[in-house]
Structures are given as structure tokens and as C-alpha cells.
Specification:
The structure holds three protein chains of three kinds. Chain A is of the alpha/beta class. Chain A has four helices and four strands; from the N terminus they run βαβαβαβα. Chain C has a five-stranded mixed beta sheet. Chain C has a three-stranded antiparallel beta sheet with strand order 5-6-7, with no helix packed on it. Classes of the chains: A alpha/beta, B alpha/beta, C alpha/beta. Chains in contact: A-B, A-C, B-C.
Chain lengths: ~140, ~325, ~325
Amino acid sequence: MTELSWEPKIVAFLCHWCSYAGADLAGVSRMQYPPNIRVIRVPCSGAINPLYIFKALREGADGVLVSGCHPGDCHYISGNYYARRKFYILKELMVWAGIEADRIHFSWVSASEGQKFSEVVTEVVNAVKQLGPSRKLVKEFSTNV
Amino acid sequence: MKSGKVTKNDLVQWLKTHQNNFLVTEKVAHHQPELLCDQSKEIKNIKEALFLPWDKLFNYHWENQQWNVDNIQPSTSPRFLMALPCEARAIYEVLDRVFLQPSETESGYAARRQGLKMVIVGCINPEPTCFCHLVGGNPYWTHPDALFILPFHDEYYLETNQPEQFDIIEQGTTLNKSEKEEIEVLRKQMEEKTNQEKLPEDAPQGLYDLFEDQEWEDLSWKCLNCGACTFLCPTCQCFDMSAEGRLKGFQLKTWDSCMFPKFTLHASGHNPRPTFKERVRQRVLHKFSYFPLREEGRYGCVGCGKCIEICPVNWNIREAVERMVKKIGNRS
Amino acid sequence: MFESILIDTAKKLLRDKTVDLIIGYGSTHYPFRTEPIVINKEDQADALIWNPFCGNNLARYLKYYKNTQHKIALMVKGCDSRAVQVLLKEDQINRDRLYLIGLSCPGLVNREKLQKQFPQASPEDFQWKETGWFFHGEQIDPELLLEETCLRCRYPNPLEYDQLIGEPRTTSPYQTYQKDYLDPIDDLSPEERWDRWSKEMTKCIRCYACRNSCPLCYCQECFAESTQPQWVSPAPTPSDNFLFHLVRTMHMAGRCVECGACERACPVSIPIAQLPLKVETIIREQFQFEAGTDQESAAPLLTYRENDPGDFVK
């Protein structure tokens, strides 16, 4: 595959109550955004285990987007606050381990922010495109002793 | 057989001409660093050369409503492998007997084994953890198929049966009578030591009979059930198989360890080795009872002491075996 | 180092039936090595030892006794006592069943460093005294021999104990080291850090010695061994190895007590304790929390503040 024809694959974990509805609104409002994301709906951004993010990268995702309700608006009252701490540590650790910071993105998108959702996705896709295909943490079975 | 002594310089030069694909075990690199060449690749554990930590067995894919299987041709490229006698025994006495049985030969192992030329480096400074005498080995053990090297009076004593290795011996000088005697005496001493210290003949059967003994519980208490000992053991040969990929992928063979809780877990949920006791007992008995009972008294352990050296809690297989063997004596 | 006091204490505890068993350190046949032992009779107490080679974190063995009724005496160093505190907080063991024999710890000796500094030396050449360490009567600079994790130790005294063996120590003299330890790695570019870790991860054989020696890794089933779903492959490829260590680090976030048991257990010498150390440093700076130092404050990932850092979220 040449650089030109390469399109990133981005796994997006969207919370059921806000971001998923926001994505829906972007859809019904016919807003344009790049078709590179594969959406996985989760109950809450706080339900996202760091394992999911690592697993996505291992299976070859070029980027990961996690999106939930704005702080204070969580359907479960505080799930996104817990998520914020967890993701802060996760992102710091991943960058420290040497993984590109722009592989993993987090955002707050409410159910009424279709516009913001399309902007976020555009931004994420552009950032990941800048990085090129992911090779770190991707499962790799070609070299052996 | 041809033997002789060569200078260090000549030997290193000769090794260099074969240095492509030259594997050296960590132990040799530690004991005899002067024998290493620039290209030699250090391996942690001798079995990595033949029994890979992970290996693809075959590729598969789903097409036209059926499974299609493509075999993978294992590499047979010739390689030199330099190892200490204990590690070499792991190949000749244990791994070959497991993977090269005529009825069930492991093709990948067989192919890699075919291309392998062994260089055995006599062991001159055994470590406190070593116990090769106990299991029938000795620091000067060699095999007719291998080139044997022993540091000898600032030079190297060489011995081989392989005509293609005669050239290096011809470069050096032959041993005079007193030197020959010296080598013989050294060998004799070591063989006698082995005869004296070797575990008793009835140990494998005796240990087998102690299967239900309470002592295993005490012995296993401090074990953490990590796989460090089995993964760094030159003779541990257990492996696991899994499929990597759903509709397209390959059959993956990986090392497994009897120390892991899932080692013998059945699909039903039943585990015949549910606790540390059974797992530790399995490790000891497989090497010191089941294997020798099946293989004419050859132990499945070569006494290299690696497992004792690296164990996070100093679990000592030698001590455990000696303790259990003493029990055989007490009972009779 | 205060071994006679230790043995007397142990004998008394068993004689008075204060405890049913004592988990401590014993000697081995091999130089500069100790092993964990468990004793339940008074006459076995003479086997107990305490020296700078007692590296295992014995809190690890408490999980065997989670569902028993035993009263257990445990030898704890500063870091081990923190691990016990985390276990208490996570309701893994009851404090009433524990008798903590605190050890004022001078730090542990790294065997590799010892062999490098004093090749061919045997145990008889050394004296490990409370007043210092000596080689043939000459004092040794501890910084030459100490484990990396002990050079950055902040808690040489146990934080929780029923009896302390030895005099309490002033705080670790190696504060500078602790401060600067991560800096050289932080200063590398992400690409250099990746190369550095990739190199380490090719060494990993996934024996799980790090996990199994950790007192706080007590899951019934580890994610790394789960097959349904399979998070990491059993094959020790560098990417799977790194994934295992990164996820384990995330599981340890806010719980790691920096005892270094994982690093000492590693048979292929990967500086594995650096990963949780980085996370603990972040947590200390951002969330003002240190694992195992108190019983009251909530674990950092089980709580939140409305003004937590959030600039990284779009």
C-alpha cells in the first residue's frame, strides 16, 4: 500500500448517553466527517478498561478515540470523573513508554453536540494521518529466534 | 577420533570462519568470553536454538466453504551451537528423545536439529548451583558428534569425530604422552566423582512411590508458581498450542510451564493439578521419575543449576530431590 | 542484625500462642541468598534470619491464608509494611489476624553489584552490621551495593508494625538519587524511550515471575492468562510482552508500593519496576497520594476531584 492510498482505522469508544447520541445527531444532521472511525458503544466512559485501548492497538488500530459526557453531566453521576483520572495516567504512561501521543484521544461530546463530534473526529483523523500507520504494540509474528 | 591442542588464536580464527549463524549459550559467554566472535548470537537457554519460544506450525484460511492448510517449511540452515556439557546433554539426552521419536517426530525440531553442529566447551569453573554429577553428567562430558573444546595449559585441547572439523586440529600440535595422560586423569576423576555422587539406581521408582507423600506440601510452600525455572530450563519441553486468527491465521506453538495454573486445566473446569503442591511435584517427578523410568534411567534434568540460580525464592530442585530420595532410604 | 531479638520474639509469639505461624526469612546453602520460610513450632525459630539479602516481599504469601483462620506473624520491611497496608485497605486480610514484626531496613544488597565490586568474595568476608557493612573489617559504601529500588527508598521504617526490630532509621539518605532517577529517562525523546523499552521487552520470556512475586497481584485469573477473551498472546513476542507489562502497570496504578520485588524476581534482569515507579510518581505529583502510607485516604483511581487535570481531553 502506498502512503497516498493509506487511510487510518480508528476505534472510537463512545458512551451510550452522550457521545453516541452526539454521533447520531451528526449523522441525522448530515454533517460530514471522515469515515475512518469504527464505533463501539459502551455504557459509560468510566467503563472503559485500559485493556480495551491496548487491545485495539494490538489488533492494528491506527488510533483510538474515547468519548464521554462532559464533566458533571455523566448519566451515572461521576463515571467520567473516574475515567478522566484513569485516562490521564494511561496517556502519561503510554507517552512515557514511547507511544505517539496522538494515537490516543479523549473528548467530551454531549448528545446535542453533533457539530463538535464531527470536528473532533476530523481532528483525530488528521492527527493520526500525520503519524502514519501504527506499528508500536501491534501484534507481530514475523521475527523469531 | 582426532585430538590435539591448538593455540587460542588459531581456534578463534577458525571459529570466525564459521561465525555466520553462530549461537552461543549465555553460560559459555559467561565462562569463556574469549571464544566469542563478533557475529555470534547469545541465547539465554540452549533449547531456544531448536525448540523455539514460539513457533508457527501451519497457516490456515477459510475459503470456498472449507479450511485450507498450508504447511510451513522450517529452516534447515546449518548453524553452530556452542554450549557447556550440561546444556549439550539437554539436547542429546533429553530433547532429542522427546522430539525425535521415530513414531512422533516433530518436523520443525528435526529440521533445525539436522543443520545443527555442536561445539561442547568443557566446564572449568562450576558454579555453586551446579549439580551435573548427581544426574550422570560431568564437566568434561562430550558426544561423538560434537567438537569438544577444553582450555588446557594456555591453549585449547580439541577432540572430534567429524572429518570436516579435522582441519582445525591439524593446525595445532598433537599431545605428547604426559599431556594425554593428564587429560585421561582429569576425565577419570570426573567420572569417578559422578559415580560416587550419582543418585541411587532406585531413585526414579522410589520417587514414583512417594507420589502421595505429605512432604510435597512443605516443599512447595514457598514456590511462587512463576515459570522462570521451566522457561530457563534447558530440558523443559512442555508446550501449548493455540490458534492465532479466526478465518485466516496460523497454529501457534508456545512454551508452557507446569507451574502455571492453566497448564492442565480441562475444558470441563476440572484441574487435576489444582494447587502448588501438585505442580511442584509434577516438575520434580517428571524430571526425576517419569522420564528416567521411560528412558532407561536417563534423568530429565542435566544439573545445570539454572533454575536454582534464577528462582526468586531460591526454590532448590536439588535439595528437594535429595530430601525425597532420603525418604526412600528411611522407608525400606 | 538483631537476629537474636528476632528469634526471641518469634519464640515468645509461638510459645504464648499469640500467632499460629510465622512467615520470615531463612538461610540457604548458596552464598548471598535467603529464602522465605514458614514456621509454627518454637524450636524452628532459630532458622529465622535478617540480613540485607532478605529481598522477597513476604506480604505476597498472605493470599494463601485469606480464607483460613490462622493468626500470622509476618516479617515486614518498610516497603512490605506498605504492601500489607494496601492489602488491608483492599480487604484481603484482617488486621486482627496479623502480627507485624517490623524490620528497620538498611536496604538490600544487589547480588550482581556485589559480585562486580568484590569478585570471588565469599560470605565470610563480609559483616552486615547495624552500624554499617564491612568487607574484611573495612566499611563499604552502601551506594555501591544497594538495589536500585533501595536507592530510591523513602520508607526505611515500617509504617505499621506490632513490634520493631532494630532502631528506627532517619529517612533514606538517598533522596537525591530518588529525585533524579527518572530524569534521564524522561529527558529522552519518545522514540528513544520506545527503542529502550523495545530492547528490554525482547528479553522478556513471560515467566510471570514479576507478577507472581508481587504482593498486590492477587487476581484469581490474570488477564494475561485469560483465553476468552484473549488479551495478549501466550507467545512472548515483544509487542505482547510490552502490552502485558503496560496493562499490569495500569493495574498497579495507585497501589504499587515500590518494593522492587518484581525487579529482583526477573530472571532476565529487566528494570521492570521503572514502569510502576513512573505511574506512582505521576500519582504523587498530581493526586497527592502514596500507596500504603495511610488507611484513610481513598485509592486514587477510586476517587476524583472536579479540578483533576483535564487539558488532554478535547
